[in-house]
Design a protein that fits this description.
alpha/beta; Rossmann fold; seven-stranded mixed β-sheet; five-stranded parallel β-sheet; 13 helices; 17 strands; 19% strand; binds flavin-adenine dinucleotide; binds uridine-5'-diphosphate
């Protein structure tokens, strides 16, 4: 009974947070307007509210949580509407902070890639090398020596292609990275920063975890519940379905803006490129669809990049299962800033405007045009909140 009461209350609270708030809300009473209720905005809102500031947080979507938003689908399976979100961090501070708002479920992410040799571990590890090359590598040292025979030297490792080719050679690059990256980013890896493929390092061990961070876990009751707990504060008003420029100007001592920085400035230097995605969600009448949470499809003929089965991430028991395939495209909601030299140059011009804009702080993956994971965004937001609250320095705003 207690559990169902808690669930019912949870649902009522959730509805309260998701219901569009009437425009009669006393918006003028806030010390700070926070634009965007994803990790960047929600963390700053919570920190400022806990320090006694009145905060109005708005989001143009009909829900909180930004891209980390999760929900139960029609079959009752917890899914991530905007693609799989796996929490991992080396930061004790970030984990400690988020732990105030959620309990955790231990979870280590594993990914297989569908290639001609079958389903093999990704990132490339000793097992992958054995399966693709049919070699018997008995130790890490042997795997390392074998990789050296494959690696192609590159004078300066600049691009996403260079990074992979110097580590594992051209054959594995073409098998695992070239097609996937072209599909995901719409350009050849030679046109992207090395930082893109450096996210997926090569291993000489049999360790088949996708991440090696010290802390790897999922919010026990999902991300949306975490956000609800974070924003459940007397000093915070949440206004959904609202763009920042729908609001009267000049009513707040300060604004923290976590939307796309080029949008804020009317794209006056031209649009910053973002990559968008289509999430194809499907529920299947089987208990499990695939052996691990995510299968990557590096071949260009397959139109999607990866397929994720949520029950592996959440640990939910259900006789059916829900999956999500991701197809990348240029147009649509901005999900990924595109790391390249040209885009960095363009961003610098917007950044100069942002630095000169008084009374506004730009934050988050879109506000600072950086390909950041959730923990990095939380870290950035915690540091920003500290600056905003610091006793009178130049940075003081709120
Ligand atoms: P967002 O979550 O994008 O939030 C910004 C919010 O601002 C949005 O809700 C938007 O609606 C709102 N907004 C924008 N403009 C306006 C405006 N003008 N007015 C009002 N509201 C506005 N990270 C991980 O650590 N692990 C993962 O496994 C992982 N997987 C990912 C998978 C995918 C497919 C994607 C796209 C990202 C993934 N990430 C992952 C990254 C993670 O989503 C981000 O680090 C994090 O969500 C960024 O938070 P944010 O607040 O900066 O931005
Ligand atoms: N990548 C790839 N093949 C893979 C996995 C990743 O080519 O099987 C490249 C691709 O360019 C991708 C990048 O490495 O965008 C980073 O991968 P990650 O899994 O970190 O992407 P994210 O989860 O951020 O979408």
């Amino acid at each position: 009974i207690q559990r169902s009461m808690r669930e019912l209350l949870g649902r009522v609270e959730r509805r309260a947070l998701q219901a569009p708030v009437a425009m009669t809300t006393p918006v003028a009473m806030a010390d700070c307007l926070v634009v965007g209720a994803g990790f960047a905005g929600a963390v700053v809102a919570e920190r400022l509210a806990s320090a006694g500031r009145k905060v109005l947080i708005v989001d143009r979507r009909s829900h909180i949580g930004g891209n980390a938003f999760d929900e139960h689908d029609a079959a009752g399976i917890l899914i991530h509407r905007y693609g799989p979100h796996i929490f991992h961090t080396n930061s004790d501070e970030v984990l400690g902070y988020l732990s105030r708002f959620t309990a955790w479920r231990p979870y280590e992410h594993r990914v297989l890639a569908q290639v001609t040799a079958g389903l093999v571990p990704m990132p490339i590890n000793r097992t992958t090398l054995r399966r693709v090359y049919g070699v018997d590598l008995r130790s890490e040292a042997e795997a390392e020596a074998f990789l050296k025979t494959l690696a192609e030297p590159v004078d300066r490792v600049v691009s996403a292609e260079d990074f992979v080719v110097t580590s594992v050679g051209r054959r594995l690059y073409e098998m695992f990275f070239r097609g996937y990256t072209r599909k995901q980013w719409g350009v050849d890896p030679s046109q992207l920063d090395r930082s893109v493929t450096a996210r997926v390092p090569t291993r000489t061990s049999d360790d088949d975890r996708y991440f090696l961070d010290r802390h790897q876990c999922m919010p026990r009751h999902g991300y949306t519940r975490l956000f609800e707990n974070m924003l459940d504060h007397d000093n915070i008003t949440v206004l959904l379905g609202t763009q920042h420029n729908d609001l009267p100007k000049g009513r707040y001592a300060h604004m923290v803006y976590t939307g796309p920085v080029d949008d804020y400035f009317g794209r006056r230097f031209g649009p910053l490129p973002y990559r968008s995605l289509v999430f194809e969600h499907e529920t299947l009448p089987v208990e499990f669809h695939q052996p691990v949470a995510t299968i990557n499809y590096p071949v260009e003929d397959t139109p999607y990049t990866r397929c994720t089965e949520f029950k592996h991430l959440t640990g939910q028991q259900h006789r059916w299962t829900s999956i999500c395939r991701e197809r990348s495209r240029a147009d649509g909601d901005p999900y990924y800033p595109v790391p390249s030299a040209a885009n960095r140059e363009l961003f610098r011009r917007y950044e100069a405007l942002a630095d000169a804009e008084t009374g506004v702080t730009f934050l988050g993956r879109l506000g600072t045009y950086r390909y950041m994971n959730m923990d990095q965004v939380v870290g950035q937001a915690l540091a920003t909140a500290r600056k905003l609250l610091a006793p009178r320095t130049e940075a003081v705003a709120v």
